[in-house]
Amino acid sequence: MPHHPGPPPAGPASTYAPQYEPLPWHQGTQPSSTYTGGQIPWWSVQSAVQEPNFAGWWQRAGAFLLDLAVNFGPVCALGGVGGEIGDGGSGDSGEAVGTILGWVGVLPIICALVYQVIREGRTGQTLGKAVLGIRAVRDRDGRTLGIGRALGRRLLQPLNCVVLGLGWSWPLWDDRRQTFADKIVGAVVLRVEAPLPHPVAFQQ
Asked: Is 156 helix (H, G, I), strand (E, B) or coil?
């Protein structure tokens, strides 16, 4: 009878361990894993993804108050000086000087607001956020907001004042520590000292 050779002996199972380079903005470490074709890649495993380190409510409140001082401090100072001149001046001349100083104080406000929006859009930090060590980034991937999104977030902040300022208090219990304006534009605020997490962490 003809001899039929059996199947060749099975060799050792091959494994494929790809190396994934971190994204340019990613500063953390990636967990090592082996992909064998039947396993889920490490970037989709929740336990392997570093969670974002969100800024605390007091840090955000302190940064907001500092920004208010930077934005509106000059006009308050000039308005106070103008009021004193107007009260102590003689007749219409004193009132005119006080009015001029009050209007001159509007220019620093405009310059400060424009500078703060551009700075936050490009770096994630206003002056107040830089002092308090926090930054605003996009919630879907951790990248900087961009000037348009930063401006939209600033314009939408009055919505945080509705219902007795509920939007300002919302980060106290929200899982992503977001205000109403943050949720609308898709922003989160992180601590600066924390490494930026993998983008999957933002998408959960």
From this structure: coil
State how far the Cα of 88 lies from the Cα of 31, in Å rounded to an integer.
71
E strands, the chain, are 134-138, 187-191
Q: In the 8-state DSSP scheme, what is residue 82?
A: H
> Is 99:85 a contact under the CB 8 Å cutoff?
no
198: tokens are: 């993998």
| Torsions phi, psi for 177 (to 5 deg) | 55, 45
CB distance 64 to 127 below 8 Å: no
- The helix (run of H) or strand (run of E) holding residue 20 is none
pTM: 0.65
DSSP bridge pairs for 75 = none
The beta-strand segments (E) located in 116-179 are 134-138
* Residue-wise pLDDT tens digits, 109-154: 888 899 999 999 999 999 999 999 999 999 988 899 999 999 999 9
